[in-house]
Amino acid sequence: MTIKDQVAVVGVGCTKFGELFDRSYEELICDAAFAAYSDAGVEPGDIDAAYLGTYMPGPNGGKAAVSLGDALRLYDKPITRVENYCATGTDAFRNGCLAIASGAADVVLVLGAEKLRDRGGRGLPRFGHPLLAKGNSAPGLFALAATRYMHTFGVGRDVLAKVAVKNHYNGARNEKAHMRMEVTEDKVLSAPMIASPFGLFDCCPTTDGAAAAILCRADLASRFGDDYVLVKGFGLAVTTGRPYYDPTFDYLGFRSTVRAAEQAYRMAGVTAADIRFAEVHDCFTWTEISNTEDLGFCAKGEGAALVREGRTALDGDIPVNPSGGLKSFGHPIGASGVRMIFECVQQIRGRCGERQVANPEIGLAHNVGGPGAVACVIVLGSR
Questions:
Q1: What pLDDT was estimated at residue 125?
Q2: Which of 71, 195, 252, 258 is surrounded by the most beta carbons within 10 Å?
Q3: pTM of structure
Q4: Cβ atoms of 11 and 224 closer than 8 Å
Q5: pLDDT tens-place string over residues 134-143
Q6: How confident is the model at residue 126 (pLDDT cuts 50, 70, 90)?
Q7: Of 359, 334, 333, 335, which is closest to residue 347 (Cα–Cα)?
Q8: Which of 298, 331, 344, 376 is catalytic?
């Protein structure tokens, strides 16, 4: 199946990300949605269907799409709530594309939103068995894979620090980022240890935020302006949520990303070499390095060289996370993927100011979560 160039993104919106104690979950939804409406030149009544990407909906919404319906008064229309670990936002976008390509809708709202800072505690809430899941944390699980990778390929923490420095440099130039500050390698390496080899600045923060996109049939896109962006392809892959029981899992990367990228490239009719820039899932600094390999930007074990040589910087040949990434934005689960779509669209439009990458004809957004159990890849491009 292919939907290449059948779906267009005609509008996007994004809130400021951060500790937004003065904004409710519903207000963040409204802020992102109405920014996207304005960008696309549509009215709420133009929306045929909506998809809400959220990991933990607002307190009045339970687990249902009513969180979006009530916030936007978008009643009597099909609204679907999507949750798929850290790929929630990009999977919501994927579902919106499928709705249009199938003929079920002409204009679709995709919105990702999350409020993590109002819930107390630190890090992500933990679920699962009260005994067997004890001590199970995102930093701990990803640190296991990072340790194996670094041992196998002889990579030191200095390379992880270079990823943090790069992404904070980009984020300092992004008005919507949570952490708008530059850091030095010394500061990264001397920061408190969270889960070896990850120090404080190797980890993305927990954050509040929302982002939205308006999709429509490509043959209708010109009605909304001439700066629309086309969906070239997408892929979604799910593997085991318990990789430590899989004897073939080598802790050097994530098969879900490899398979999702293969699907997306095949649908788009491109290869990894055709991608001009990428927003990838840098929940931790090592994850960005691994993702660049799994996405095919280099061979396994060569991701560290991409960083050392500056090839993933804004002026490199494959800029990675020009927005500042999750390292600067934080990771409000449902919002992250749609926020990455927002960045890709704005880069392709040439609207990113001093963060603007050269020749942004085709870009990629990627999420992986679980950790590693599910990945989603979206390829977007100009006309």
A1: 53
A2: 71
A3: 0.96
A4: yes
A5: 667 889 889 9
A6: low
A7: 359
A8: 331
